[in-house]
Structure formats: C-alpha cells, structure tokens
Amino acid sequence: MSVRYSKSEALLERARKVIPLGSQTFSKSVTQYPHGISPYFATHGKGSRLWDVDGNEYVDFVNALCAVTLGYGDPDVTAAVAGQLGNGTIYSLSHELETIVAEQIVAMVPSAEMVRFGKNGSDATAGAIRVARAHTGREHVLACGYHGWQDWYIGSTSRDKGVPAATKALVHRFPYNEIDALEAAIRDRSGEVAAIIMEPMNIESPKPGYLQAVREIATREGIVLVFDETITGFRFANGGAQELFGVTPDLTTLGKGIANGFPLSAVCGRRELMMEMEEVFFSFTMGGETLSLAAAHATLAKLEREPVVATMRRRGGRITEGLKERLARHKSEFFGSVAGDPTWSFFILRDAPTATAWELKTLLQQEMFSRGILMIGTHNMSYAHSDADVDGVLAAYDEVLPILRDAAKNNALTQHLQCKPIVPLFKVR
User: Residue 419: how many CB atoms within 10 A of its CB?
Assistant: First the structure.
C-alpha cells in the first residue's frame, strides 16, 4: 500500500465491495488513475485547489472533467444555491427558474431558440437524437467525438457490451476534419441519415471551412446538425464553439460547466425542432430541480458579467505555449506535443523507442500527482486558476519532462515507474 495514498487505497478497497470499480464514473476510477500512485477520494475543493482524503493538496487541472468552470466553491454560485435551498429543491409544479435560465441560454447561445433541461450530457445528446429522428422520419446517425453512455451512441465504441445489435447498426462514426469521409458516409445511406452529431472541436482545431462545409452538407441533405457542446459550451466562448467559429447548428447539447458542477444539462435549438419535444418523450422528475438551476443562473450571469472565458484562455495559453517551449528545450518532442483550445488543452503522448504512450502517461501522472498537480493528460482551465498556478504546473513540467525523456529513450521506465501502466478505456478522439 502506498504511504502517500494509504487512506485513498483503503477507501477504494472498501468501495469496491459495494460499487463496481469503486466509483460512479469511469474516468474517476482505476481505469484513469493508476493504482499505487494515485489519489481516489477527495474531501473538498476551493478555487483551483482540491484535497484528497490523505490530506494532499493539488492544483486541479481536471476540474471534475471540465464541469467546474468558475472554480470550486464559487461564492456567487454558493450564495445562489444557499438562497434557494431554504425554499425547497423540487416541487409539484414548475418553478420560474426554469424559464429564467432558459432565457439566459437563448440570449447567449446562437442556435438556441428554445431549451429543455436534463441532468447529464448523455440525457441531452440522447434527447437531441430522438428529436432529429422524429423530425426527419429517418433512423441513422453519423457521429464524431464522444457523446455519452446511452445505447444509441456507446454501441459505436468498443465499450458496447449489453447494447443490442440493431441499435449498433444505426450509428456510424466519421473522422474529424475529413469532409470527403462525411460525404461518403452520407452517400452510403442516402436519404436515411437523421442527424450528424459532433463535438465542433476537441483535440484538433477545425480546418478552414470544415465546420461551414458540414453545415452546408447537412442543410443540403435535410439532416439535423447537432453540435455536442457538453464541454465546449460556456468554455470556448460564452456562446460555445459555435460562437467562436461562427457556425450555427440546428440543435446544441450543453452540460458540464453550465452550472459550475451542479447536475444540469440542456438541449436547445431551432424552435421548429424543439417543438417536437411537445410530443417526443423527454421528461425527468428532477429536470426542474431548483438548486442546479439557481447555480446555472448565477454561473451564466457571472460569465456575462466578468471576463471568465478570456481569463481561462489567457492563462491556458500560457500553459500551452510554455509546454511547447519546454518540450523543445528538453528535447522531448519525439514523444510529446500539445493540442486543443487553451481552455481545454491536451498533452499528447506518443509511443517512443522504449516506452508506449500509455506507459508514459502513467509515469506523467505519477510524477505530477507527487508534485501536487492533479491532471489526466489535459489542462481543463477554470476561472479560479491563477498565474501562480500556471507557474507551478510549468515548473513541474521542467522537472518531469527529463524523467519522461529518460523512460522514452533510454529504456528506463522500470527505474522510474512505481505501478502497472494504465490501459485505454476506449478511444473516441
């Protein structure tokens, strides 16, 4: 048992007796955090910091998988939730906050004319696909990126256990930034495609004209274009990636940072399509839960009032440029590179002469965790990250990159790595 993480590991052992994997989320489990060198349980977070059950403090660059945009315990969000709590959380009737937050989204997101709420991003993407199928009378879906756990999508991945074959047959993946591949996928199912659903950007930036071409193809073919902005919404810009790139989809799915970590998601889009939801069944007992809506109201107001995205972009840009410079200086570009948006950037690791990408990722996490940096290969920025936090992660890279280089070039992995390497959950980007 690790001394640094002894309480985490003991609690994990206890949890696995009653919870599969010991966690409610794959990406918070041993599938993502290597056993022996990782924390598993947090006690609290504040601002850009998180503390584990062993008392270790971290600057957090995971931020609850991009769900926390403003920072942990944001005072405006906390005050809004506390103020609502005394009046109740869910009622036998709808609450005005449902309309207020929907109006905020309509004002901020270019595609949004009407809004319906869910609790997870998977709710929203499943709802958008059901609307697209209802509206077009078609069944097939073309998908690019990650779109949640439900059958309609996850059946297209290697994590398809338990998904009926008939469901799998209706979803077809296409590669990002390859417009000819999208055209070919549509030709193969001419007149049968209900929706194109895609993350407008994740690791790779869109080529000039790519998203515009996707928009034109969808319009030409009568296909509903869905942008899954579960992560990019309220992160890339107040109006999401569609605002940043100037391309408006028919439907948009939102989640993650919409309520700074409170459970809320949304489907929004053109009125003609959204009106399908008066008959399409998309309904939740907790869909109008008021604590999350109060959190969203405060979060969206702060996004409009303060330079949240600009600050995340500036500080995240310091990390991406600083890491690029350090990869060059430490002669580490043969195994590592940087990609993504400054607010959600990726440290890309590649197979090297004497270590695989997954071995290097495990070693990276080991060394960063031990230096008080919580990260899983990405830099998920929050408004709470300070310039000192950025200085700290860059200083850590100065120490860690030579270790990774030694493992990657000199067959020194076993000398440095203190646990078994992790294996990929499944590849979606």
Answer: 15
**pLDDT, tens digit, 9 for 90 and up, residues 305-362:** 999 999 999 999 999 999 999 999 999 999 999 999 999 999 999 999 999 999 999 9
For residue 41, the number of C-alpha atoms closer than 13 Å in the C-beta half-sphere is 18
Angle between helices 290-305 and 308-329 (to 10 degrees): 80
Helix axes 290-305, 75-85, angle to 10 degrees: 150
CA angle 315/392/5 to nearest 5° reads 120
Residues 6, 11, 12, 18, Cα dihedral to 10°: 160
Q: Which domains does the chain have, with CATH numbers?
A: 6-61+308-416 (3.90.1150.10), 75-305 (3.40.640.10)
Q: Is 185 helix (H, G, I), strand (E, B) or coil?
A: helix
The single residue listed with the structure tokens 């990657």 is 408
| Distance between start and end Cα atoms, the chain | 34
Backbone φ, ψ for residue 292 (5° rounding): -65, -35
For the chain, counts of helices (H) and of strands (E):
16, 14
CA distances from 89 to 26, 115, 290 (A): 28, 20, 5
Give CA–CA dist 365/31, Å, rounded. 13
